[in-house]
Write a structure and sequence with these properties.
The chain is about 25% helix and about 35% strand. Strands 2-3-4-9 form a 4-stranded antiparallel sheet, with no helix packed on it. A 4-stranded antiparallel sheet has the order 5-6-7-8, with no helix packed on it. The relative contact order is 0.15. The chain is built from 1 helix and 11 strands, in the order αβββββββββββ. The protein is elongated and about 105 Å long. With about 160 residues, the protein is of the alpha+beta class. A hairpin with a 5-residue loop joins β7 and β8. The chain folds into 2 domains: about 40 residues; about 110 residues, Rieske Iron-sulfur Protein. The structure holds FE2/S2 (inorganic) cluster. FE2/S2 (inorganic) cluster binds next to loops.
Amino acid sequence: MEEKDQLGRRNFLAIAIGAIGAVIGVVIAIPAVAYVVGPALKRKTSEDWVRLGPTSKVELGTPTLFKTTIERQTGWIVTEEELSIYILTEDGRDYIALSNICTHLGCRVRWITDQGQYFCPCHNAAFDKIGLVVSGPPPRPLDRYETKVEDDQLYILLGG
Ligand code: FES
């Protein structure tokens, strides 16, 4: 009978130790898994205003090129991306921000003052001052960004 009690006690101790070990394992594993997997599951949902520079740099009626570098995070990977944005204003109050990426195959367009057009050298496309397609294969106008001005600084809104 005593032997049977001892076996029962040993089994109980073995089960109790195993259960405590399992609880400790779970307590350690959950934060570790969350730490490793969390960033990969995070989706960027917020929208970001990116500062381009002072409004005083923009010539009235002439698209002015602003360049800035932003960081994009995808999971654990952070990459830097250079943005080149043309800013146009006719009155110093309302601003148009246009991407310099051609909507055909992604080449960079540049403003040609003499012609009053953006030119894409890849397939000889042209866009007018506000980014509408004038000639060539691009399927749509240059992409636009929402703009705002705060303390004489220009900002564009990047989608999330
Ligand atoms: S990439 Fe610009 S016209 Fe083809």
